[in-house]
Specification:
- The chain is mostly helical.
- It has one domain.
- The protein contains 16 helices and no strands.
- 42% of the residues are buried.
């Protein structure tokens, strides 16, 4: 070891590419864990904010889009990347998904809403089957588990407008499945895509019901909660997830994100005492199980030596 390295205790480890790789991976895992922690807080804030679903979804999207805009690099984006049918479907699907999710959380339990929206991977599998015109039978099991979970939640006896909320949650899962399916088909960087989707969603929702936005009257504390939903829960979480994907594999990041549907109903229960029903618990377990099986079924198998 050289004199300079002895003078700087960290120099040897800094020069070791394996140590740098381990640190990078550790940061990736930490960011991957922070992402679902932030995402999972949406259910609680959507529940407690005294604002109708359309302006809530629109203002949340607007704040998120404005927050992410400084992280975007529009100069490198070619106009041809914006004028595609895939991007049009992506924008419509995202707008529907955020509106359905917010409406679902308001009308049913947070556990049911997040579980039904989490059916998105099963919809992606179904869309892939349709696009490729062939069935990968190893993916039939996760889809079957998800369908059992959906059936369990939808069989829950209706209380008020809970059935409507459950159906909206399922619609949100379909919309987010479309969003996920078309995401790789849009040649835009991750942060730019999310920023654009949120800004367009805000514009569309405002155009659909401007009077509901103009009627919003919130206290300073509620505006802080709204700012958190847009800037932190979506904005910061998106930046964290993009940074995590730069350090760890997409498969590992996807497994870490499974924490979101587990944590979301927990925060709601701890804050306002809303407990999942038996139907919601059983359905959520099947849906999460199906998503987990789907993730591991898609992982590349190690080559035999």
């Amino acid at each position: 070891m050289s004199t300079e390295q002895r003078a700087r205790p960290g120099a040897a480890s800094e020069a070791d590419p394996r140590a740098a790789s381990h640190r990078d991976e550790a940061w990736g895992i930490a960011l991957g864990l922070l992402t679902p922690l932030l995402w999972s807080s949406s259910g609680l804030f959507v529940k407690i904010l005294p604002i109708a679903p359309v302006p809530l979804a629109g203002l949340r999207a607007l704040i998120a889009g404005v927050t992410l805009a400084p992280f975007s690099r529009p100069r490198g984006i070619k106009p041809a990347a914006l004028l595609t049918p895939a991007l049009a479907v992506l924008l419509v699907a995202y707008t529907l998904s955020v509106l359905c999710y917010v409406s679902s959380v308001r009308l049913t339990t947070a556990a049911n809403a997040i579980a039904l929206v989490s059916t998105a991977p099963a919809w992606v599998v179904a869309l892939t089957w349709l696009a490729e015109r062939r069935v990968r039978w190893e993916l039939a099991w996760p889809v079957a588990l998800v369908l059992i979970g959906v059936a369990a939640i939808l069989s829950e006896p209706a209380a008020g407008r809970s059935l409507e909320g459950n159906l909206l949650g399922l619609g949100g899962g379909l919309a987010f499945g479309l969003f996920t399916f078309f995401l790789p088909r849009v040649r835009l960087p991750a942060v730019e895509r999310v920023a654009l989707c949120n800004l367009v969603a805000a514009a569309v929702l405002f155009a659909a019901a401007p009077e509901s936005f103009l009627a919003v009257r919130l206290s300073a504390l509620n505006w802080l909660a709204m700012a958190y939903l847009g800037a932190i829960q979506i904005g910061l979480a998106t930046v964290c997830f993009a940074a995590a994907l730069a350090r760890i594999s997409a498969a590992r990041a996807s497994v870490l994100v499974l924490l979101e549907p587990l944590l979301s109903p927990l925060w709601v229960y701890l804050a306002i005492g809303e407990a999942p029903s038996r139907y919601g618990l059983v359905g959520g377990m099947f849906i999460l199980g199906g998503i987990a099986v789907n993730l591991f079924a898609r992982r590349p198998r190690a080559a035999k030596v």
